[in-house]
Each structure stands twice: as structure tokens, then as C-alpha cells.
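Ticket #4471: structure export looks truncated?
Reporter: QA, pipeline team
Priority: medium

Steps to reproduce: submit the single chain below to the structure queue and open the exported record.
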Amino acid sequence: MIRIVTFLTCFVCFAIISIAQVPAKKQKNKTTVQAALRQNTYQQLSLGAIKPQGWLREMLVRQKNGATGNLDELYPLVMDQRNGWLGGDGDQWERGPYWIDGLLPLAYLLDDKELIAKTKPWVEWAINSQQPDGYFGPSKDYPNEPGLQRDNSRDWWPKMVMLKILKQYYSATKDQRVIKLMTNYFRYQLKELPAKPLDHWTYWAKFRAGDNLMVVYWLYDMTGDKFLLELGDLLHKQTYDYTNAFLNTDLLSKQGSIHCVNLAQGIKEPLIYYQQHPEQKYVNAVKKGFADLDKYNGMAHGLYGGDEALHGNNPTQGSELCSAVEMMFTLESALEITGDVDFADRLEKIAFNALPAQVTDDYTGRQYFQQANQVMATRQVRNFADNHGGTDLCYGLLSGYPCCTSNMHQGWPKFTQNLWFTTEDKGVAALVYSPSEVTAKVAGGTDITFKEETNYPFEETIKFTLGMGEKSKQVTFPFHLRIPAWCKEGVIKINGEVFQKAGTSQIVKINRLWKSGDVVELELPMHIFKNRWYENSMSVERGPITYALKIGEEMKKVNNDKDPVDYGKFYHEVRPNTPWNYGLFNVADNKLNTFYTIEKKTGVAEYPWNLENAPILMKTKAKRIPSWKLYNEMTGPVPFSSIYNMEVSAEEEEITLVPYGCTKLRISQFPVIGNKE
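Actual output as written to the record:
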């Protein structure tokens, strides 16, 4: 959630650099300007080079037909022609750019002319708004109006979102006006930031300036302008010191210490800066940050307790939807810079668990917060750091707070855009897996395509078929594939023959002479495993998916006459119609396959993310815990695992577990009621 907060201005002395409109420079070859920036392990492809297929394409089509493609009609108060990013006197701040940050990549990934046309007025107005001193964007504040953010128009933070949009727009179109605008704006920043630092208007930019820094370095790779490196140092200096916070303070073990979305965005900043100053401490800081986030706040869905302040690892604490999509973007960026398998594993965990569970099937409603153990999604004030009329768990367009209404759209499009990369050794890499097709250049310029056929993450096999143009019948290049940490041993086959068996948590590079029509099959055997969480509770997992108790769901539409401007004209509540208070037995790792029976449906539905279409089920035995009851329309405190002489039901029952992302109600962190031999 974003609220406008004004803080005292800090003044820092730097040389004042005069600015004038400069023409777009001829872009230099990256190798000629790379000396001051570290060569990243992987490079993102142009927007549109990767095409979603299978269930992933269905997700994007549902976004097109849902809120992403129609937010101007569903949320006209903010997204109509009055928006300040279209030159109007309406909302002047982050929500308009948030929407386009997801709509624009969606439009180009689907090659959808109607959606592309819908993004154009926003892009054109932003470019044409640039002033002689280099500033761009809304510049006039207006009096308060319910449902709108009309002040702090010159705040640094919303421009950071628009910079990301323009970077993506350039990737798709190569419109040179983007280079000119960014060059002039970054000169403006270099001049103005000493007197008006990142927290001059609000404090958000100070925590999120890694996004600004990322685009500065991207432009430097394009133009080689040395002033951009000076600006990079200045931005880093004014940004919250995540490096020190992760390495030397109790930030991540202290509840309430940081806003959950600031953390999701900011945790990548040391790695962004690492590109200019490749010191190991920046990598160490981020790795320690994630380890501590897991230890003190982590949950089975891949996110952490943050509702909105950092709030520990109790599975009834909330996780904000903005945290999900921003953390996905952070992990995508970290993967590109480092090539670290852990970032890809974390990315898939969020994408295949937390993200689909928090949005309705038609992509018109979402939760502001989700709970790892969520047994009622109703209007009720709960133990969250921030409450919004008790609507935070309800599924609606505006329930909770509308930042997520605007920002949720980037999750799946950017995930798609980061399935594939080109490599510094002139090859191509598939590092995150989903059905797709990619077009890329390898070996210095040869055009190839790879078609990726799979029902991953529900199935274990991924098939890649290579294609080449008529001019090229064979070419030598490396093909990078990831073996996730949860996979004990992956198997790679080429044209039906075993090529290599590879151990866990690594990148395999297949460097060979390839021919058009070659087929690579990657087998990632999935085994059942368990993890321990808050109060020693237990999750059951297989591959990248966490499995949760299947609870009968009754969804009811609630018309909201009380406060429709704040929380929408209606929202949906979800209540259980089957029991949920089960405990699981502790089973030795080597016996999990005996006590958990997997049932696979024939084929995977076009849309797999609901109870009806769940492609995989697990059956196991459990017992109810009578004392574990509802409290405040949540589960009561999860019983410690294991309580001596815990009261449990006499009879064992068979329960069904389903993929977390298929649920609206769930238990994913179970109390353990005893050992099973």
C-alpha cells in the first residue's frame, strides 16, 4: 500500500551540472562501453522474442480479457483521461504507470494490436511531456479528491515506474525517442538530486531507487555516456543502505522494520550496483538477506509475512500481492546479473504458488493480502499491520488497497519475458521453465528458434525442439539449462539418447554442433519432500509446488454500499464447507512415497489453477485437532509440533492435498501430531 508521507529533506553537496536538450546518440556496441560495468551472465531478449504457449498463454489471455486489458473501464476513477500521466487533473502518482508496466509487456507478448494501441497514449504523453530542463511527467499538484492521489506529482518514485515502461517499450520498438528522453532526464536527476534527494517528496523513492539505477545502467550500455556512472553512484548513495542492513543489522529479524513492498523491490539494489562496483559484499548481502528473510519471515508459498510492515512467519499473517509481483521482478533481475540458480528456484516458487492463488480465475479480482493458512476470506479486521475496512482478504477489484489493483498485471508478462536469455558465451539459456517459443541470435548472428513443450510445473519432462532459418542448417553454440535445487538428478537427452546426468542446483552448458530439428529433452524427477516453518509446522512439497489441504469453497458476491469508493462496489467472500483443522503425521523422508499417494489427471487443463482443474492430487492420512478452532475468522494459533499428549481425533481420515496455486482456502503449514512408522 502506498500513502503519501513527507519527510525532512536532506541536503547533499554535489557539483551542479548544466543541462540542455541533447540529441539521441548513436548507440555504441556494448563491448566498447562495457569496461565500466560488469558483464552480466545473461542478457534479456527483446520484448516479443518469447511467445507464451499452453497454460501460460492462457494466463496472459485471461489477463487481456480481465482487468489488465480493461482497467480503464473497470477503474475509470483513476485510469480514464483525467489521469495525470495522460495530462489530466486526476491521479498524478503511481497507479497509472503501475498498470501500463504490466499492460505493455502483455500487449507485445501477445502481439495484440488492440492492447498495444491502448498503451500508446501513455507512452506518447510521457515522451512528449519532457521539459527543457529534462524533467518529464506530471508536474502540478491538485487538492484532495476521494479515491485519487493528486499531490506529490514531482516525486521521483512514479517516474521510476515509467522508466521501466519506456525501457520495455524501447525493447519492443527501438523508438529512439526513449534514448533521448532518458539521457535528458538522467542529466536532470544528476543536477537536482543533491538539493532534492530521493526522499524529498515522499520516502518511497529512497527504498525503491534500485529500479531507477537499473535503467541508468541499461542506458549506459546503450550510449556509453560517462555521466551516467556518476549518477549511478549518487543514486546508490541516496538509496537506503540495504547492503549494510542485511550484513550488519537486525532489519529482517525485527518485525515492523520495513515495508513489505519496499523490501521486495529493494533487496535487489546491491546486485544492481554490483554491476558498476563488482565487490563480493554486494552479492553476500543479498544472499544473506534472502536467508534471513526465510528464517524469520518465510512461508510455504515462497513469500514472507508483510501486511504491510514486515510481520514474521506466522501463517495467518498476510503477504501483499504487490510483494509477489515485485519480488518476481527482483528475482528475474538478480538471475540475469548473476546466473545464480537459487534466484530461479525462488522465482518459480512464487509464480507457481503465491501468484495464482491471490487472483480470481477471470483476472478481475484479487486479494490485497493472502495467508499461507487461509480458511476464511471474509470482511473482518484481522491481525495485520495495516487494515482496510477488514477487506484485505476479500477477492475484489479494490478490496484492501488499490495499489495492487494497478500493479498486479506485471507478474505473468515479466515472468514470460524472463524464461529465456542470451548468454555471454553467445548461446541461449532456458533458466525458468514454462511452455513457450523463443527466437534468438546465437554464435554471432545466426537466427534460431526453440519450441519448449511442457506441462511443467505439473510434469517432469520438458522438450525443446530447435529450428533454424533456410540459410543455416547447422551451427555451434552453447545451450544452458538449469537443474533446480529440489531435483536430485536431472537427465538430459539429445535426439533420444542420454547426453548427461546432472546433479542438483547447477547450470548445465551443452556446447555442440546443432542441426535444425534437434530435440533436447530435460527430465527433472520430482520427489515428495517436507519443510519446517513457524511453530515447527510442516509443509509437503513436490518439485516447485507446495501442496495444501483441499478445502471446500463457497464463494459469495457481496454488494458494497458502505464504502464503494474505497473498496469497490462489490467483492467476493470465500467460506469453507469442509473441515480444515487437520494435523499430519511425521514420516521419515525415505517413506514419504508410501504415505503420500500421487494421483495425476489425464492431461493438464488449459487453465490449471483451481480446484476443479488441479492436475495433481496427493492423498494421505491425517487426524483432526479439536482444539484448533476458528479465531477472528482465521485459524487459531497453529499448534506447536509436536505437543506431548496433544488431543486428536481417534479416527484417521484420508485427506486430499492440491497445488497451493489452485486454492482460495487452504492449510499449507500443518501441525504435526506424531510419528508414523
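Status: closed, not a bug. The export was complete when the record was re-opened. Leaving a note from the reviewer for reference: Confidence is low (pLDDT under 50) at residues 1-34.
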